[in-house]
Design the sequence.
């Protein structure tokens, strides 16, 4: 192993993997330090990837040249496109993963990557000099030097797990916590906080009576996550659905006096969108059942993940309560549910490249920033990895904005608003949601990926062919005006009203349920579609979406251009916020801490009220006015 | 360089012209210090206290200028949120100007128009809609305008908007629930339920918007145009109205001899009355110009008084005028003047062709029927009483625009839902509706809006 690196990535989770792969693929000599090499890319919580907003994120990661999409395509055991009954903007791919296979698959990618070294150790200190990163020190006292360091420590920083009133220092059940790093960062002036999350028990599938549960199968034609995967060919495994009962709730309630959550033992803040089962029965006491998904852990495991039953209640309560659930009457718990508290660093201490404002060359990505979710972590890791190398090359940073992708929304939310609870991405966080679809992630990000060398020339060429074909079809189809005799049989067949004079195909396409494959019965349409060959379904889907929702997209595009207007109103960097009496005290402090780059960014900071923004706008305008006509004296 | 307002500004805060007293307002960190060498309190040994008036003299190099009361408002408990000193002196342009000049020489700067309120806004003493209300309060020429502005200043409009935003936010939440938590076992609200919510919101917004006509009248007054053939007694009617109300106000400069504008305060409602040249067919150039202006005045009228002469018979030109009035579709009154004289007029055609127009008989000479006319004018203008305590009125075109835009979004949202499109398309418009409401309380505000607001302010309020 060399004595020094361009980039050191501390942590081998989902953020760490993407960061290390991106850095090495961009030519940086990279080292990944992880506490347990055989736990690389471990799914600490549920064995699944995707869902609303998260699935979108994976598609963007993939388009940018990340690994996550391909890894889940290779190792998924059940694929579903959620929200299929709704519009295309919220269609969300989701897959159950084979937990072990996924980890092995990702580890192979790291091991095969040229320019990337792996080293099992615990980093206990970051090395810094004059505000610049120098490398890290391991627990054995070895100093490894580098020009950039990306910390992706997950839930390991001073991790403390809880089962009932018992606590165990651990980064994950059965793994050591990472100690020393928080203290090292705090000594450098970083502010740390404490969050909490939890996970349900795992059970032995051989002891489940599936006949008492509802089966939930994957899609018949599974859609891959990656733009590079041709098709999902592996057989799929079903999940099962069951429900808690009143009796379950009673038993859970009887254990609340030994709940670390309700006795005040846990001080970290947990996610409201992912409550523990005890939280659910207390906060929603009138609900007499809660759904429980039984998710297989993998092809070569008998374990099932009891999704919906996250708990940190004592062992005896977990066992007795879970056995009241239909299908689980005789179940054997293989691993207990637990809660974990861990340190995080409020992400308002970062710039939009994920680099810390305090130390040049030091980046944070993933759960260390207070996020939750593998996808959120991976996206941050990728952004941090790319930007670390761009900075080493002296190139301008890569900062996707809120109108470009969920990655932009995620990063802007984190660095601008920070977070009070483990942060998760939702589609509702994206103002320009209709444009940020999983189906067009390639059109939004692949060009960037190619620019960084993360997307190969063949893929780029394919993208260009595809976008060219979409543009061509959008114009060519408007010139195809079939007569009623040709079209009406098609229209009648799908129950759409017949036409009485020629109408162009784009106008026809606006009709609900009418697709280009219906219209390919018209020879002129087929003549345009036939040369598309293997791009045919992708291209026609894009054309159909674009035409059917044209009016809505147009309005979103107008909103985007307004957003860019406010975003381009720069705020002078040296502004002394603390002296601005016209701003509320909270706004002064927040603005001073976050130092937004634009009025647009400032307007999204929580605690900065509309009138603070107005005041800021007036102050900036006045300042430029006073610059033009300086005050006398 | 910091952007804080660290200079001290001063201006005469009362309107120009003769009055009982005039107030000079000084705001900024040196407000107190700058009067030190010019104000001589009558009880010099006492320490000045905030929010207490102090009696004394303003002297310029020993020369007494005026006997004054000085009040010091210590920051942040002042109008602007800064240290403020107000000097109440004897009214009159000269004295106030002299004192202001003296204060400026002590190292303060003349305030720009609206700057006191700008500072109040910047110091977080009021939000945008409140800042606008101050502008209205200053400009309030009548009781009605004052009442509306005062309620808005209390934050009533902001409160109502906030309540509606709450309702909208809640509805948005219900839509998002279905998109982001599609796998959860939660009960999604039905389309019918959402539609009901949006309808409720629409009707609240519509009633707010409906108040705009009334609100605008309260704020800006009502444009009343008196028309009629020559010598039917239009001017004497106007004079009589003015005399009766004893609240004339000033001639508006720039009006011509042909159309004269008067401000008339009818029990709290402002009427901007235009007396027009008599309308008749003419070839005489000066008179033709007068008639042209009369037509112009009619076009901009909110209400019309059509004066007929009781002592003369129906004239073909009355018919021409009546036709024009029918086309205009402006509310009005048919006033039959000279009812103290012998009746020669047959006014039936007026009743037939303008059925909505009440016919009132008056005598400008004796004053008969005038009270009824005044009462009718007021009732018609406000369709009732002055704004009451519980009433919320939209008085600003900007607010009305925002509400219209919000309504438009709600309408789109309902149409989208009707077409069977899914939640994210509906949400697009509900977000738009939220943003529209935010424009009233100043959520996202462009410089244009701010510039307008602050330029609307009279100096020193």
Sequence:
């Amino acid at each position: 192993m060399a004595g020094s690196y361009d980039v050191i990535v501390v942590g081998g989770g989902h953020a760490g993997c993407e960061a290390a792969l991106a850095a090495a693929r961009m030519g940086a000599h990279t080292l990944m330090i992880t506490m347990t090499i055989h736990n690389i890319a471990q799914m600490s919580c549920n064995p699944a990837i995707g869902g609303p907003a998260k699935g979108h994120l994976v598609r963007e990661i993939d388009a940018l040249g990340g690994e996550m999409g391909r890894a889940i395509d290779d190792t998924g055991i059940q694929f579903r496109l959620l929200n299929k009954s709704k519009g295309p903007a919220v269609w969300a791919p989701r897959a159950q993963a084979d937990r072990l296979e996924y980890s092995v698959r990702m580890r192979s990618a790291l091991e095969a990557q040229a320019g990337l070294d792996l080293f099992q150790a615990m980093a206990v200190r970051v090395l810094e000099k004059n505000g610049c990163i120098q490398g890290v020190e391991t627990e054995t006292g070895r100093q490894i030097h580098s020009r950039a360091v990306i910390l992706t420590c997950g839930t390991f920083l001073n991790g403390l797990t809880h089962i009932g009133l018992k606590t165990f220092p651990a980064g994950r059940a059965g793994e050591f916590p990472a100690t020393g790093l928080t203290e090292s960062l705090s000594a450098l002036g970083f502010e740390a906080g404490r969050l909490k999350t939890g996970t349900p028990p795992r059970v032995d599938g051989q002891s489940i009576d599936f006949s008492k549960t509802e089966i939930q199968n994957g899609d018949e034609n599974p859609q891959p996550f990656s733009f590079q995967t041709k098709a999902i060919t592996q057989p799929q495994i079903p999940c099962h659905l069951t429900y808690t009962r009143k009796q379950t709730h009673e038993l859970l309630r009887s254990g609340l006096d030994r709940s670390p959550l309700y006795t005040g033992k846990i001080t970290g803040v947990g996610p409201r969108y992912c409550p523990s089962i005890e939280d659910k029965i207390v906060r929603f006491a009138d609900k007499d059942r809660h759904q429980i998904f039984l998710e297989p852990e993998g092809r070569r495991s008998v374990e099932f993940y009891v999704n919906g039953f996250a708990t940190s209640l004592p062992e005896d309560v977990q066992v007795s309560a879970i056995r009241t659930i239909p299908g689980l009457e005789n179940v054997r718990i293989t691993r207990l549910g637990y809660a974990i508290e861990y340190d995080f660093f409020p992400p308002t201490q970062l710039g939009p490249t994920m680099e810390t404002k305090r130390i040049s060359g030091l980046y944070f990505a993933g759960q260390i920033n207070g996020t939750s979710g593998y996808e959120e972590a991976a996206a941050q890791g990728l952004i941090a990895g790319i930007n670390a190398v761009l900075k080493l090359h002296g190139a301008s940073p890569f900062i996707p904005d809120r109108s470009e992708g969920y990655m932009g929304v995620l990063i802007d939310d984190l660095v601008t608003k920070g977070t009070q609870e483990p942060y998760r991405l939702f589609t509702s966080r994206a103002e320009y949601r209709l444009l940020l679809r999983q189906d067009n992630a390639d059109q939004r990000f692949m060009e960037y990926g190619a620019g960084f060398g993360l997307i190969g020339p063949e893929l780029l060429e394919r993208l260009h062919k595809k976008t060219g074909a979409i543009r061509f079809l959008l114009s060519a189809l408007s010139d195809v005006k079939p007569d009623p005799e040709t079209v009406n049989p098609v229209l009648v067949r799908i129950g759409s009203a017949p036409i009485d004079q020629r109408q162009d195909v784009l106008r026809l396409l606006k009709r609900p349920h009418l697709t280009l494959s219906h219209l390919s019965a018209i020879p002129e349409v087929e003549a345009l579609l036939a040369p598309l060959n293997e791009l045919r379904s992708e291209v026609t889907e894009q054309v159909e979406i674009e035409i059917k929702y044209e009016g809505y997209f147009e309005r979103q595009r107008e909103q985007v251009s307004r957003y860019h207007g406010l975003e381009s109103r720069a705020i002078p960097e040296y502004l002394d916020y603390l002296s601005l009496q016209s701003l509320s005290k909270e706004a002064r402090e927040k603005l001073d801490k976050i130092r937004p780059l634009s009025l647009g960014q400032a307007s999204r900071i929580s605690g900065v009220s509309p009138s603070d923004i107005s005041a800021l706008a007036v102050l900036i305008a006045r300042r430029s006015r006073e610059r033009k006509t300086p005050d006398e004296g | 360089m910091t952007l804080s307002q660290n200079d001290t500004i001063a201006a005469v805060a009362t309107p120009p012209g003769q009055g009982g007293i005039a107030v000079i307002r000084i705001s900024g960190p040196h407000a107190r210090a700058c009067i030190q060498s010019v104000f001589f309190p009558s009880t010099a040994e006492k320490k000045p206290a905030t929010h207490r008036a102090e009696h004394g003299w303003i002297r310029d190099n020993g020369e007494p200028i005026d006997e004054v009361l000085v009040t010091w408002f210590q920051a942040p408990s002042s109008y602007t949120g800064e240290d403020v000193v107000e000097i109440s002196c004897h009214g009159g342009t000269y004295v106030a100007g002299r004192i202001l000049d003296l204060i400026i020489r002590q190292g303060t700067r003349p305030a720009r128009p609206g700057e006191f309120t700008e500072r109040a806004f910047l110091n977080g003493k009021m939000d945008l809609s409140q800042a606008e209300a101050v502008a209205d309060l200053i400009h309030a020429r009548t009781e009605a305008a004052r009442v509306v502005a005062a309620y808005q200043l209390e934050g009533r409009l902001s409160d109502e908007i906030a309540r509606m935003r709450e309702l909208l936010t809640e509805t948005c939440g219900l839509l998002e629930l279905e998109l982001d938590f599609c796998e959860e076992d939660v009960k999604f609200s039905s389309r019918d339920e959402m539609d009901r919510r949006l309808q409720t919101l629409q009707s609240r917004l519509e009633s707010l918007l409906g108040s705009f006509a009334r609100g605008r009248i309260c704020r800006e007054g009502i444009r009343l145009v008196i028309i009629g053939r020559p010598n039917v007694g239009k001017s004497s009617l106007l004079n009589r109205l003015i005399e009766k109300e004893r609240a004339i106000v000033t001639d508006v400069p720039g009006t011509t001899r042909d159309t004269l504008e008067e401000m008339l305060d009818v029990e709290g409602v402002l009427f901007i009355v235009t007396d027009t040249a008599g309308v008749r067919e003419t070839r005489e150039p000066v008179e033709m110009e007068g008639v042209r202006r009369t037509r112009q005045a009619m076009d901009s009228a909110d209400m019309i008084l059509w004066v007929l002469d009781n002592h003369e018979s129906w004239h073909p030109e009355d018919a021409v005028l009546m036709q024009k009035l029918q086309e205009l579709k402006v509310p009005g009154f048919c006033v039959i003047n000279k009812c103290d004289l012998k009746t020669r007029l047959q006014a039936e055609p007026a009743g037939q062709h303008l059925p909505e127009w009440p016919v009132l008989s008056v005598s400008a000479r004796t004053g008969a029927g005038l009270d009824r006319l005044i009462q009718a004018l007021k009732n018609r203008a406000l369709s009732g009483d002055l704004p009451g305590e519980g009433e919320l009125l939209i008085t600003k075109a900007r607010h009305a625009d925002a509400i219209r835009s919000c309504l438009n979004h709600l309408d789109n949202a309902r149409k989208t839902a009707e077409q069977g499109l899914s939640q994210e398309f509906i949400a697009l418009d509900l977000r738009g509706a939220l943003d529209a409401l935010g424009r009233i309380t100043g959520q996202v505000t462009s410089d244009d809006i701010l510039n307008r607001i602050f330029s609307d302010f009279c100096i020193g309020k």
Q: What stands out?
A: The CA atoms of residues 409 and 429 of chain B lie 5 Å apart. Chain B touches chain A at residues 1-5, 7, 81, 118-119, 121-124, 127-128, 172, 176, 178-185, 420-425, 427-428, 431, 438, 441-447, 450 (CB under 8 Å).
